[in-house]
Amino acid sequence: MVAVDILAREDLSFPESLPEFQRIFPNDAACAAYLEKARWRDGFACPWCRVVGEPFRFEARLGVLRCRACRKDGGLMAGTVMERSHTPLSTWFWAAYLITSQTPGMSAVQFQRQLGLSRYETAFGILHKLRAGMVRSEHDKIGGKPQEHVESDETWVGGRTRGEGRGVHHKVLVSCAVEVRHRKPGTKLDNRKDGRYAGRVRLAVVPDRSAHSLCGFIENAVAPGTLIFTDDWSGYTGLRKRGFNHHAIAECGDPEIAEEFLPIIHLVFANLKTWINGIHHGVSAKHLQAYLNEFTFRFNRRFYPFNAFRSLLGIAGGAAAPTFDGLYSGEWVHPTFSGCG
Prior knowledge:
Blueprint: H1 18-24, H2 28-39, E1 56-58, E2 61-66, E3 73-75, H3 89-101, H4 108-115, H5 120-132, E4 149-157, E5 172-182, E6 196-205, H6 211-221, E7 227-231, E8 245-249, H7 255-261, H8 263-279, H9 288-300, H10 307-316, H11 324-329
Parallel strand pairs: 4-7, 7-8
Antiparallel strand pairs: 1-2, 2-3, 4-5, 5-6
């Protein structure tokens, strides 16, 4: 199986080990040079006069690039998740590297300890800003290939609430769609899931299990005409009218039926809940979508984790980031992969 980095750049190296990271990015100046090359492949483009060329640089102000044509200043980090940040650029690069190279990821507490940050709030804010950069606004829809199909289902995520009466809980409903691919014959994993494995995944918080919510999620996440397997919940009955080749599986509470027809989607849900509880020890409903974005980013790049560092910097180069006040007040709405609110 050959993995391809969708944002591959021959002119941008990426570190495959900690010593290599320290060699490539020894200081803020090296990080600034890398970020400039990542943002402007053909040279700095002035945001004021649109002239492309070599700018004036200032040793004491690495984040300022002055256009030689109009003599106006442009910000190296303007329009990125790092905009208006007082955190050193090298700390941002360490954050991007650690969050992408560590297979299970890390919590804000771990991140604070690793980088020696004095305040938890700084670590919390940096990680959430990077999570905002993990969403590509122009993402392509999954599925659409004749030899593959998509499994879709929904699940409840969150901790159990006690002492508030039967049936009362604070769980959040999450909808998921995942590509199902087939391994080439002749490998040691031929007998695992009948040779099936997960391709790309999409996850989003949905308000309820209605057809409007579930079918709307699939319509935004999956290419039209795709073969989709779901359970026989009534919320999926409108998929054929929306242009999908829909097959509903009557599970009837039988785990063997679920394992035969919907094995990959349940594997994704198991991995998601293990990751949330094991690394973050639970997350609030307010920020759950941000963690779903991180899980999706990791999952879709699991075959090339080190390239994810460069991908994150490239994606974050055009993303809006939340402020600390926005995160805590709830005014910031985390972006989604599916386009669902």
